[in-house]
Amino acid sequence: MKKMNYVLELTLEQIEALITYYEPLAETVFVENTMAAFEGNHVNISIYPSKKVMFQGKKAKQHYDSWVEQFDLADTSEKTEEKKPDKPNKDTFYEPSIGSDESGSGDYFGPLCVASVYVSANDKEFLAKFPIKDSKQMEDSTIIQTVPEIIKRIPYSLMVLKNGQYNQMIEKGYNLNALKAYLHAESHRKISDKVGKKGPIVVDQFVQPTKYYDYLKDIEDIPQVQTFMPKAEDHYISVALASMIARYAFLNHLTKLSKSLKLKLQKGASPMVDEQAAHIIKSHGERQLREVAKVHFANTLKAKALIK
Question: Selecting from 3.40.30.10, 2.40.30.10, 3.30.310.10, 3.30.70.1560, what CATH number does the domain 6-70 have?
Answer without folding.
Answer: 3.30.310.10
